[in-house]
Amino acid sequence: MPASHHKHTVPELEAPCPFDATEGYVTARRNLLLGLWAGRRLSLTGTELETYARSVVKADRDEPGHQDMLRKVRADLEQAGCPVPEDELTSRLVACHAEASRQCAATD
Length: 108
Prior knowledge:
The chain is an all-alpha fold. Helices cover 60% and strands 0% of the residues. It has a single domain, classed as Major Prion Protein, CATH 1.10.790.20. Pfam families: ATPaseInh_sub_z (PF07345).
C-alpha cells in the first residue's frame, strides 16, 4: 500500500483524493479538515494555518482511535481562550469525516 494512503501521512491541502483511497487516507483527510477548522478558530491564516492543520494529523499517531488528536485540538483551543463544548467538537469531527468521505468519493 502506498504511504499516501496511511492515516499518518498528511494529505496535501488541495490535492484530490487518490482513486483507491483507503479508510486511513479518509481519516487523515478528516483530521486535516478538523485542523483547518480549529486553526481558523485560533485565528491562524496562511502558512500558520496549514502547519497547524498538519500538526493535528500528526497528533493522531499515539494510540488507536482519535482521542489523542481530539485532546490536542481541545487543549489548543482551551489554551487560546476559545474552548469548545465536547458535543460541538464531536459534531465537527463527524462533519469533517463526512466531508473527507465525500471528497474521496468524487470521481472527477
